[in-house]
Every structure is written in structure tokens, then in C-alpha cells.
Known about the structure:
Elements: H1 3-16, H2 31-48, E1 56-58, H3 64-73, E2 79-81, E3 90-101, E4 104-114, E5 124-136, E6 139-153
Parallel strand pairs: 1-2, 1-3
Antiparallel strand pairs: 3-4, 4-5, 5-6
Helix pairs in contact: 1-3, 2-3
Amino acid sequence: MKPRMLMTLVAFGTLAVGAPRTASAQAQPDADGLARAVASVIADALTACRGGCRSTFIPEPRTAFDSAVAVIRHAHPRAVPFGPQRPPSYGWIGTRGFTMRGDTAAVLVEAGSKAPSDGRAIDTYIEENLYLFIPDGAGWRFLRREFVRGMDLGPVRG
């Protein structure tokens, strides 16, 4: 994808998620740089590979920003898009838009895992975190992660 097109997609994603603005954040954020920074942090998570999986799927993007991050992530050898055939056990990690908190970008990152189940046990875990980034010179620097929620899914036990 051409950088100009990526920039347009990312800028549209900022508008599509309705990023709130404050007096200190009136200027449009460098969304294409943010997409690169987020993809880099996620690539580090892929290298660590949650749950011993061989590959980590990229969920269907919901916003233009998510699409821009996914395009960059496709370059990572362990990141694959969801397709019609999924292995019995797999993990995924992807973005779900971002908002601005003053000059700090808060990117919602969803990660999950699915394990084989005999139909009697919880087989899916999903965790959502906000990844906070601040402007740093010509780009964005990862600041910290904030836990939002964790969910166990599957048949009810007991």
C-alpha cells in the first residue's frame, strides 16, 4: 500500500472512531506514525507468542485505523489473517480503534486464544488493554498498557 493511501486510511480511521479532542490536542495526530508504532509493539508481542501458538491471527479490522495497522502487521511472518479454515487451537491480537486523551493516544488492543474443547469447558479467553502512546520527536513512543477487561467464554461449567 502506498504511504499516502495508508495515511488517508489512518486519518479516516481517526474520524471514524470519533476521537475526542481537548484544547491541547486540536491538531490532527500523526495517525500513520501511530499505526507503525502500534504494529511494532504488537510485533514484539507476536515474537513472545502467547500460549505457545505457531501463528497469531489478525482479526477483521473494524476501523480504517485497524486496517492500517493490519496492513503493516501482515509483514510479520507469524501474523496471518483469519480465513475460513482455522486450526483447533489459535490466538489472535488486533486493534479496535483509538482515542486521544490530550496528547496521548489510547489504542484498544484485543488479544485472545481459543483451545480445543470437549464441549464441557471454557475454551476461549479474550483480553482488552489500552496501549498508551505519546508523541516522541518524529514518532510515537509506547508509554504503558492499561488493563480494561478479561473474558472467559465457552460452555457454562458446573
